[in-house]
């Protein structure tokens, strides 16, 4: 089966056996891009044992020091979660997400692939890590006991991706003039926006003073901006900065 740019990203995995089990699940379902962000122990004999024949995939797994590095080159990002989150996040089930992932990976001329994020075994993904995703991916389960082992979750999602790849007429990817913006490009947009907000003295008025930028990140991520759209927004921000600097220079000279 032809390889597609679909990446599984494991963040700060505690148990090396889970890494091996995820590698096995991926190879079972014809996926081959595994990235590990600061695993507690890797390489490790337990990971190799649990890979059970997927040693080649495990050997190719990349270990990186940050989530930003792990997502380089990706456009579409889904974050797995079993916890209830606030209503500002868009949540899709595994089957719906898998179809969209495959469509995005197959898009003609697509320069960027898709990634699925998996958090730590004990606490899952932090809000800061979730902020890198356009949507949350949830596996329907018993409401009284919805938490899945990371390897089980990876197996189910990988299976849905395989099924989506085998559909006779998979849904097309949304038409766009440019690939989705990468998480790195989005991060630079948010940094630029925060800078302009500070220069204009536009402050977070919420009680904690931390919610505004989180909400801005979420609604921009829901919009799924492409690279051209990010450049347009940053051009507007730069124009605002230049106009403010010109006005300030005029006031000082008068």
Q: Which short descriptors sum up this protein?
A:
alpha/beta; Alpha/beta knot; Helicase, Ruva Protein, domain 3; seven-stranded parallel β-sheet; 10 helices; 7 strands; 13% strand
Your description of this structure?
By secondary structure, this protein is of the alpha/beta class. The chain folds into two domains: 6-166, Alpha/beta knot; 183-253, Helicase, Ruva Protein, domain 3, CATH 1.10.8.590. Helices cover 48% and strands 13% of the residues. It contains ten helices and seven strands. The protein has helices at residues 16-28, 45-51, 55-60, 67-70, 94-106, 127-130, 150-166, 183-199, 211-223, 227-253; strands spanning 6-11, 33-37, 62-64, 74-80, 91-93, 113-118, 135-138. A seven-stranded parallel β-sheet has the order 3-2-1-6-4-7-5. Helix 1 (16-28) links the parallel strand 1 (6-11) and strand 2. Helix 5 (94-106) crosses helix 7 and helix 8 runs parallel beside helix 10 (227-253). The protein is elongated, with a radius of gyration of 20 Å.
